[in-house]
Amino acid sequence: MAPVELDALTVREQLFHERVRECLICALLFASLYILCHFVIRHFKKQTDFAAVHDDEDAAVNRIALGLCTFTLAVALGAVLLLPFSIISNEVLLSFPHNYYIQWLNGSLIHGLWNLVFLFSNLSLVFLMPFAYFFTESEGFAGSKKGIMARVYETSVVLLLLTLLVLGMVWVASAIAGNGAVSRQSLYDLWECYLPYLYSCISLFGVLLLLLCTPFGLSTMFTVTGKLLVKPRLLEDLDEQLSCTRFEEAAVSRRIASGKASCWLNLNVALLRERLLSIRSERKKLELRHRASPWQRNVGYPLAMLGLLALTGVSVLIVCFHVLELLLDDTAMPRGMQDAALGQVSFSILGSFGAALQVVLIFYLMLSSVVGFYSSPLFTRLLPERQDTPLTKIIGNCVSLLVLSSALPVFSRTLGITRFDLLGDFGRFNWLGNFYIVFIYNMGFAALTTLCLVKKVTWAVQQELIRAFGLHKLPLSVSRSRPQGEHC
Predict the structure, then answer these.
(1) DSSP state of 56
(2) How many CA atoms lie within 13 A of 174 on its CB side?
(3) DSSP assignment string, 187-211
(4) Residue 336 forms beta bridges with which residues?
(5) Which helix (H) or strand (E) holds 337?
């Protein structure tokens, strides 16, 4: 065999081995995420929906729907890890450019992961989750033989009708947006125009949802941290407050248990019991704070609050700096790239420290968006409960988390949190090239986050100062006359 043919065969073998290696790595990563998500869903799912089902048909339907939900949640988790994994991979390749053991971490693998996440997120949103919902609600057509296949036929027909309805709406919206200049009649246009346009609308909705939930979630995280950790108090004597609370609780308990015939007591038994419950709750809080060590009171809470304040402040500063870049430099606009050139240059001006900060901010913003999503009045009912979440609510949670997580890479790049450009079809969204949308989005995030931060911090400081100086005990109004009809 000629040397040229040997070289060509060697190259083909190398490409084959690289492809197999990438497939194995992607399969292992997704299998790990799937197993983790399976345990998470089992922790929240309602046992009566799965374990206590005596009908084999219903049990099989529930298992299939559970598998689809687990797959969707794994895709959502993969979308969250997509951008941090890419940033960390780039920094690792920069630090060890000639290390033999990390040569598998290349641009082809990262690009393939982005394409897989995009494909699976489309598949889950458009087909798997609607199929899972209609499948659990289906019973088969009237007069047909009962069984799994009857439910599959009914679900397929309903899903086909829903697909035609959605595609018709997308066709009308595309015709309105395009002023009817291009005819949309072929299957090629369906794949190249309508489906990307549909997912572009979904991504825009997810990014807007992140914009609304993240500032609200940042404010909620300050409140939750204050409830979970023991807060230090200024000018406070815990022993004295605990003694007074215990004496007051004992006095109210004796008054309720005394049973003296008194019209005042008869009229206010319910009020006294409510007062007793509030005093007991206050006593438990004081005992918890009294048992906490000085390090926990005076170091743990301030460090946690300063950490949240620092991360929020850095996020706002980065977004404000990105707004100035948008006004001065066209390259600051979010865009997609087809070749993942990893290991050539750092995507942060601070090097590895800046890349680590970007990863922390991405996870922080995602966590705050999830907290804000479940804290908002519109989506509070979706909050899962341990061992008591029905299957339909699990489906709703998986869809919501997938919409938020699949929009996270676009969200982070649009705000300038990272300079890592979007790979694959993530950079093909139509609205990413619109300067006014990107600029208004950055200004809206900076304004909402600053408003929530200032309001939360200033209100907390004001309340603490009022409590420290005892101004909260001053009566707002004093009534000198007894209301008519109140006699004892």
Answers:
(1) H
(2) 23
(3) HHHIIIIIHHHHHHHHHHHHHHHHH
(4) 422
(5) strand 336-337
